[in-house]
Design brief:
The radius of gyration is 21 Å and the shape is globular. α7 links the parallel β5 and β6. It has 264 residues and is an alpha/beta fold. The strands form 3 sheets. Strands 1, 2, 3, 4, 7, 8, 9 and 12 form an 8-stranded mixed β-sheet that branches. The chain has a two-stranded parallel ribbon with strand order 5-6. The chain is built from 11 helices and 12 strands. It has 2 domains: 149 residues, Periplasmic binding protein-like II (D-Maltodextrin-Binding Protein, domain 2, 3-Layer(aba) Sandwich); 109 residues, Periplasmic binding protein-like II (D-Maltodextrin-Binding Protein, domain 2).
Length: 264
């Protein structure tokens, strides 16, 4: 009887230890992490499945490179062309649209010129050499910014006096933009969460080129045999379910919804 009891305790201990060691990693764009969304969502997943989720917060370009090296099971980023290239080259097994928000162009509070289009506002900035702060870090936001400059056939020179490419996170970029009363492109979720913006306001928003789609990708386990694909699949199936939808849509900062679920 005592031996049986010891054996049962041993099994329980081993099972708990195994459960505690179930881990998956997500390479995620900074906005999903810095706004607190993934911390909020993942605690519900861990509570339900006893699987720990490690989030590595990087710009989209860096996150993709990390996934290509087989260092994470899941990729969650927001630059569709890069995501499709990732999939087409066999680095990913499956991809889903997960959620969206939009980008906003922010600038000095004393800018009272109407934004008729994102192109007209960028032309105004370039023509007048108003200071523009670029993330310059190959993030999804930086990639979008370059696409917007391409719309007006302008390639800003990082060596110029008005275009500052700083290679920093969105938060640091907004901080410098605020200090210099300059212009910058931000995802709306980080803008809402950013508290030090007394010199800034949104100068362009709600325009089609500013749409911001987020995707979730399961990394190909042939890149690294140690990837925990089974639990990663469980996570993706969970986050695209009604449970994930409810959590994403209900998450707010300053009483404002940051992301909008649109799985397909």
């Amino acid at each position: 009887m005592i031996k049986l009891l010891i054996y049962i305790i041993f099994l329980i201990f081993n099972n708990n230890a195994f459960a505690e060691n179930r881990n998956i990693s997500i390479a995620s764009t900074t906005s999903t992490h810095d706004t607190g969304l993934l911390k909020y969502v993942n605690k519900f997943f861990t509570k339900e499945f006893n699987i720990n989720v490690k989030v590595i917060s990087l710009g989209t370009g860096q996150a993709i490179r990390l996934a290509k090296d087989g260092n994470v099971e899941i990729l969650m980023v927001h630059h569709l062309p890069s995501e499709l290239d990732f999939m087409n080259n066999g680095y990913g097994i499956l991809r889903h649209n997960l959620m969206y928000n939009d980008f906003v162009l922010v600038g000095p509070k004393d800018d009272n010129n109407e934004c008729k289009s994102i192109a007209s506002k960028l032309n105004e900035i370039a023509d007048n050499k108003f200071i523009f702060i670029s993330r310059g870090d190959d993030s999804g936001t930086h990639k979008k910014e370059k696409e917007l400059w391409d719309l007006i056939n302008v390639i800003p020179d990082p060596k110029s006096s008005w275009y500052l490419s700083i290679g920093q996170s969105m938060g640091q970029t907004l901080l410098m933009t605020n200090n210099k009363k300059a212009y910058s492109l931000s995802d709306r979720s980080t803008w809402i969460s950013f508290n030090n913006k007394k010199n800034l306001k949104i100068v362009c928003q709600n325009l089609p080129p500013l749409f911001n789609q987020y995707g979730v990708i399961l990394v190909n386990n042939s890149l690294n045999e140690n990837l925990n694909i089974k639990d990663a699949e469980k996570y993706i199936n969970w986050i695209i379910s009604n449970k994930g939808k409810r959590l994403i849509n209900n998450y707010k900062v300053n009483d404002q919804q940051l992301f909008f679920f649109n799985y397909n």
